[in-house]
TrEMBL record:
Alphabetical list of InterPro entries matching this protein: TfuA_core (IPR012924)
Name of the protein in its database record: TfuA-like protein
Top-rank taxon: Archaea
A Pfam family hit: TfuA
Species assigned in the record: Methanococcus maripaludis
Ranges where the TfuA-like core domain occurs: 51-167
Upper taxonomic lineage: Archaea, Methanobacteriati, Methanobacteriota, Methanomada group, Methanococci
Amino acid sequence: MKIAIFSKLTIKEDEIRKKLENFDVDIFPPIKRGDLTSEKIFDYDIIGIIDGCFLQSTAVAHREILKVIENNITVFGAGSMGALRASELDTCGMIGVGSVYNLYKNGIITDDDEVAVTFDDNLNQITFSMISFREMINNALNEKIIDENDLKRLITSGKELYYPLRTFENVIEKSGISGEKREVLEKFLKNQPDIKRNDAFEMLEEIIKYIEKQ
């Protein structure tokens, strides 16, 4: 089976190739509108969508995904744009994977900007996603680095910032957390796992399982 993966941001190309080393896979940058309309896309048996463009280009349309599904291509989604679109199109056959997908599916998270990040021309992430930040600061609360009031201020500050401005420094500054607590929190956050990244790897695992069942 021939696989197309849209990512290179949440997880890098070499990580995807290592995970899918025994499979025929092509890896593309974050998906944007028009990427699924090329005739070449119909050569694939499986499409996995992780990352997608928000600010940089127009987002992939629902009808594009539906068209490839109608042409008997299996489409998986996880992590970022993939999770968002899967939560909207799983009743039409798109397969959603992971925690972010489930948060959208169950209506716990509803805003598109929760998974949006900005990145440079080399696909290096500049800002963090709100959905990942929520997980990280909840971990900080559990570790008693912050308290409930800090948590609420951080969430409010993160949501009030336009997503291209969401860096740890900007959000913490806006929240009013300062001094030693700020230093400890910033260090903690920079060493936290990313929920979107974990989901992306889970999707690759699900693709492998799917192929092995065929």
